[in-house]
Design goal:
mainly alpha, 18 helices, about 500 residues
Amino acid sequence: MIHPVRSRPALEKEVRALLPTFVASAAAVMLGAQVTFSAARPFVVAAFCWGVLALGAHSIGHEYAHRTLPLLLAQPASRNRILAWKALVVLPMVLGLTMIAGACLRPAGFETIWRADGLEALLVFAPLSAISLAPWLSMLGRGTLPGIVFTMGIMGVLVIAGEFAATLTYGYRDRLVVELFKASLLWSTLPPLCAAAAIAVWRQFGRLQALEGHRDLHIPAWLWPVQTGAVAGGVRRQHPFWMLLRKEIHLQQITFVVVAIYIVAWTALWALEHQAPDVPRLPLQQLTTLYLGLLAVLIGSVASAEERHLGTLPSELLLPVAAWKQWAIKAATAVGLALLLGIAVPWVLYAVVPPPDDPMPLRLWREPPFVILLTTLSLYVSSVCGSAVRAMVASIPVVVGSALYTGAAAELMTGIAIRAVRTATVSESNRVRVLQRMAMETRMQYALILAAIVTIALLLRFAFVNHRRGEHRPGQIVIQVTVLLLALTFCLAMPVLTWR
């Protein structure tokens, strides 16, 4: 039995740690349900999966993030009681977010992406993985981000394994049998795996040690040989810009794990499409679009907040290198990695092993502005957050809300512009009206490009200001957001204001 007086501070601590993640994820799902264009719907489902897995992983991971694990394990209470306190907080939040997602996704027509049984399976398996796999992997990886990423990877591996097992067992012709086999395999495999993971959480937490910091990903020695002679002979001089670049790449370790998971999933789905083109499965175009968005947000979220979390930001600002140069390297590295890993990697995959039906279903040459905008927006959010997990969770509703505001503002300005054209050309011929409307539509396209450029420039400037300061006042953030919204609205209103 848990004593109510003794458990109250522990429960309050857990609520304070998980409530921002719950609120941000619920806001992203509810805002995303209002999106009208179908291309954004996979991102809303991904926001739900990321949010519910973040709740499970952060229930243990926030102890590593705030360096409170030694104090937690030193409390005069049994490990089972401490774990029960965490479960009493995370279980209602996971259930509440699942109920919100179920209420928002079904009426909004999200079952057009997956079938009804696929949506039901998602609403069951994601919470199960969040309360079993995610906490266990966060303890093994010593952080929240490893728990989220590796849990998503395990779920993807199970789905791909079901694809292969179904096609090898029943062939490629009977779609209904293949789909039923995949569903039955998933329903019979994942619940026992989650039960085993829940037992592993209890065992792992019972013998948990106060070891902080992520497990680094080391390159094999035969790929990156160590120059022992140079180290023994003395300190080897290197250019400071090169060292800063290496530091920025080292911060993005979890990003390369996401890229590896995407390559494995893409290759497996490509092989299945070649052998069984008639069997329905997740299209490669949707997988690549989802990969682009999540990767850009992840890279921007890690870039600034992770240094604040690791405590290296004060010492970095003391380096004999101008702060604006350090920020230029950081921003260029984040945007460059997003373009290289988000655009170049899918392009190489489509070029080397193209799908059977469409060798380039995704127009990758149109995606760089989208990737740059997402990266800079998440980089700004990262500059005001204390950890990469908070930045990632906060970036998702910010991205959805920004898309809704931009779409509503652009639609409003377009309507005003069209009415202005109609009013100005009442006495003109139909040909003049058509030409004037085409000219206004062209102006609106240029206004969108100008708005994107101005927004990116302001985001980078404000992020630089926030990155240099240790404390972030709410009033300063409100002023920055207000300036961003006013600049965006003014750029979209330029065609109407300059129309004669």
